[in-house]
Structure formats: structure tokens, C-alpha cells
Amino acid sequence: MYxxxxxxxxxxLMKLGFGEEMYELLKEPLRFLEVRIPVxxxxxxxxxxxxxxxxxxxxxxxxxxxxxxxxxxxxAEVKALSVWMSLKCGITNLPFGGGKGGIICDxxxxxxxxxxxxxxxxxxxxxxxVGPNKDIPAPDVYTxxxxxxxxxxxxxxxxxxxxxxxxxxxxxxLGGSQGRETATARGVAIVIEEAAKKKGIELxxxxxxxxGFGNAGSYLAKFMHDxxxxxxxxxxxxxxxxxxxxxxxxxxxxxxxxxxxxxxxxKNTISNKELFELDCDILVPAAISSQITExxxxxxxxxxxxEAANGPTTLEATKILNERGVFLVPDILSNAGGVTVSYFEWxxxxxxxxxxxxxxxxxxxxxxxxxxxxIYRVANSHKVDMRLxxxxxxxxxxxxxxxxxxxx
Length: 408
Known about the structure:
Blueprint: H1 2-16, H2 20-26, E1 31-40, E2 46-55, E3 63-70, H3 75-91, E4 97-104, H4 112-126, E5 135-139, H5 145-159, H6 183-199, E6 207-211, H7 215-226, E7 230-236, E8 239-242, H8 249-255, H9 272-276, E9 282-285, E10 304-306, H10 315-323, E11 327-329, H11 331-334, H12 337-351, H13 357-382, H14 386-405
Parallel strand pairs: 3-4, 3-5, 6-7, 6-9, 9-10, 10-11
Antiparallel strand pairs: 1-2, 2-4, 7-8
Helix pairs in contact: 1-2, 1-14, 3-14, 4-5, 6-7, 6-12, 6-13, 12-13, 13-14
């Protein structure tokens, strides 16, 4: 995933006319911190967790990016995700570089008290390199508003003043923004609507398959259902279900657990492979990376693939889908709604003035539509696919800022 990202960045920079020196600067994070976090567990033992914080490039402004709690977090993944965050901020024209954090843990096996101790310990460990004007964290996989609240409180104790702008994705009462929880899915839904227009597909009645039923996947299923689309297949980590007439999304939302799982309620589940082979108009991988590969890219029947997850399609599969005429919308564009509304939250914290749901949605839609149209225009003018076009748009701002600063 990391090396694939570097490969596309190199191609994008060469297309834009930048030299190898710029690639050497932008191919890796400027800063990467690994920390060890001792946590007193509920049984009295002390467990030591490993955490990371990656800051890709701060030539444009402070870095910004989520923190994920997951047993498979590793150094390369966190670095790659911080690079992607830089690209997303460039695409949406936000005044940030990319950051990312992660802790190797399984929050599904931990109590709330243990999670609180881990969250506070992580903030203490990285406190010297983060802050409202340095690096602003946010939620990611298996982290939520409660965890952000603990982290903000810990940072405020360390700095001895209230610091709501230190972190985004907070509860509304602690300075969170309206629309932040649904922002990623809302952004994906906006991009799906724009992609459907380009392909001449009417969204009402369109058949949609969504892999993943976490924050992004579940809200997206609801948005698609409410827009009149038929969600004919969805999955969680344990399995998938399908119905050609459309699934009862409200029922699934009501019955899922806190980690977005629902498939154990059903007997007739299908595999992930079968999910990707369903007849549909729009396929949305919204789970984990490397799900569409050269092994299954030929089996996908969708006309449009919109990446809601980070890195769900390999470069080999991207080439196959493009050759087959499938309209692929890359992750760094389609899931940029989260960082966009995080930026809105940071702005509101700095101003002390808060916007309504309607204001947030209106501003988000304008940014996502403008970003989509810009990338679509670059793809056509340079005769490249949407992924390379997105990288070209995303990396240009960092390269120009680094050049003006005299770094290269």
C-alpha cells in the first residue's frame, strides 16, 4: 500500500513537471514518532501498547488526520495514510498537510476504563508534536467522539487551558461540529451522485452494493436508501447479505452492534467474493484495503466503483477496471468529506462560532462537487485515469508550497 502510493506520487509529480528532488521530499513523512504506552488494565496488570504518529508534510499548514485503534495497525500503514491525508487536503484545498496516528490494540476486547487510560496515555506520549497549530487529530477506525473527548481533556490538562481546536470529531457539547459523524458517508454520497451523472445513471432505482457497515458504510447505505437507490448487498467483517429487490436498511441499522456487525442475525449469508460479483450499478468498498485485486477485478459487474475505504483497490486492479470501462472514483477524493468537516470543526473552534447542519452540508457539498469536477477535468485534459488525476491535483499544492518555502 505504501509503495504503491509512492509509485503514483512519482508519476503525478513527473506529469506536473517537478523533479526527482521534489519526489524525494514528498515520498515519505517529514516526521514519524513511535511511542510505548503503559496502561493499567482492569485486572491490575500493566500492558504496554505501541502507538504511532506520522506527519507527512506541513508546508501548507498544520498536519491533520485521524487516530485508529486496531490490532493490525503498523508503521507502513500509518505512513501511507498520512500521505493520503495530504493528498485529500490538497484535493479539497484545505490549509493542512496530512497526519495519521494509530495504536496496536483491539478495542473490542477492552473495557471503557481501559480505553480511556490508553487514549490519555497516547496523548501524553505525543503531546510535544501535536496541537491546534501543529497537528490536529480526529477519529478513525474504532475510535469515536468519546475517545476524542478523553484526548482533548488530557491535552487541556497538559497545556493548562481549554483546547477544543486540538482535536476534531468531538461531541457537540465539547465543540464538535454538526454533521461530523456522517461527514465521510455524506461526501461519498455526493461523489456517487456526481459519478452517476457522468455515466448517465439515474440514482433513483440504481442498484448499490456496499462492502462494510461501519461508520461510513452504514450511513452511506442510509443515504442511498433515502435517495431512492436499491441497496442490494452489504457486508460486515463476518459475512454479507444480499437481496436483488433491496435490503431493509433501517432494520439493519437498528439491529447492528456498536462495531457495525449484523450478519450473525442471518442464516443465508454470502461471502465477500460473492458480494463483489453481485449484479449492480454502483459498488462501494467501504471496509479495508486491498479488497479489489487483479484476481477479482474481472468479476465486478458494476459500472461505477467509488472507494469509501482507504486503498481498497490495488494498482493492478485499477488498470483492469479502467480498461473494462468501469468508472473508478479514488478514495482520496470520495472519502475526503471526513477531513473537510473536520476542517469546519477546527475553524468553528478557532472562531467560537458554530454552524447549523444545513450550513455544514451546503459547504461540504460545494467543496466535494468542485473537487470532483476539478479532478474529472484534469483526467480528461491529461488523458489519465481518475486516480492519477486525483494524485496530480492533491500533490500539486504541497509541491508548490514546498518550492516557495525554498525546501526544494
